[in-house]
Amino acid sequence: MRKFIAASLILTMVAVTGCSTGNVLSGAAGAAVGAGSYEYHLKKMKDKVQADFNSKAIDKREYDIRMDQIARDSVF
Fold this sequence. Notes:
It contains 3 helices and no strands. By secondary structure, the protein is mainly α. It has one domain (2-10, 18-73). It is elongated, with a radius of gyration of 17 Å. 1% of the residues are buried.
């Protein structure tokens, strides 16, 4: 469902900006940068959860809950 929403937003953005090649490329580049930075943030969160689990700061149940939440928030 999230992938469908993300694809719909990108298509809407392209439609709104017009058919000019420059606008389409600028919109696509902006979307790629935004998605990339969001995925990078999620990777940092995964690394933190893994470190917490390795240091015994959280138990397996909490680890699974947090990792599942991160996976559901991921665009890709």
